[in-house]
Specification:
Length: 342
Amino acid sequence: MHGNPLLILLCNMRDISFARKTNSDVLGALAREVERTKFYSTKDHSGEESTIVGFDERMLLHEEVHTKGQIHAVEKTSSVRIWYLSGDTYTNQHSSDAAKLAAAICSDLATTIFKGEAKNGFALVRPPGHHAGVSKSTGFCLHNNAAVAASAAKEMSAKKILILDWDVHHGNGTQEIFDADRSVLYISIHRFDRGKFYPPTGAADKVGVKGAKGYSVNIPWNRAGVGDCDYLSAFKHIVIPIARQFSPELTIVSAGFDAARGDPLGLCDVTPRYYAEMTSMLASICGKLLVILEGGYNLRSISASAKAVVEVLLGGDPAGVRKLEPSISGLETIREVLRHPK
Ligand SMILES: [Zn+2]
């Protein structure tokens, strides 16, 4: 028997505004919207349950996620008012603690779900994580939260973990961390625009390295405006069949909502109803689902999308979706992906 159907942990530290686009306003808007579902109160399950005490030690134990040098570089930013870890990733003196708390929350939620103490979890965290690689913080990301969560589950003896990344940007950090690891299947759906969209990684032929070829799956869209029909087709023809074959013990969603309708960076067109449908399809894979917030730059879009996801995690049925055919360009991408080894 599972305990809580859903456990939401909120990274609610004050003054974590390390970058204008990834500040605590996002968390406040999401928390308020989720509370409007009337099902759940984030107040009862705030970030107090996770702490950063002793977390350095835990991060270092997960050597395959980040190098000691990367952890040290983030740590050092706490002594200066502003610092640039890369051209787009700047910090203030609170950023390092916020990043540690975000990673700790994801680690704790992964452990809780894997042990069966909660069926699902939603980590409302900032900063996001999926661009943070083995030795570099970039793309507003300091530590890789999804990778830390996967490593925590592996520490608990998980042998197979699926990370599904539907953020509109390729999770280059996550793929780098697990590119040679057969125990983590990484599937990313993102805009690619033939290498012109940030980051210029995630082509369909990048399927993993060494003995893990086929354990990274990239679904790269080559245009703006990609919407429900293409996402649903990618799920039906690629994500779900591969995920079922892999049969994970835990599914982690790198849930950026910057492919949502109205997002000024992603310029795509995924609606809340289809985020709900994708969540429901993923929940059917192994029943243990951890959703981690990544990017998203329109408060209204991310709030409505996150609410739709939470309602499914709480057991709600997504409102019926229309069976839509993929666009011609979407179909080309799906065919290209299917040509590579899985
Ligand atoms: Zn993104």
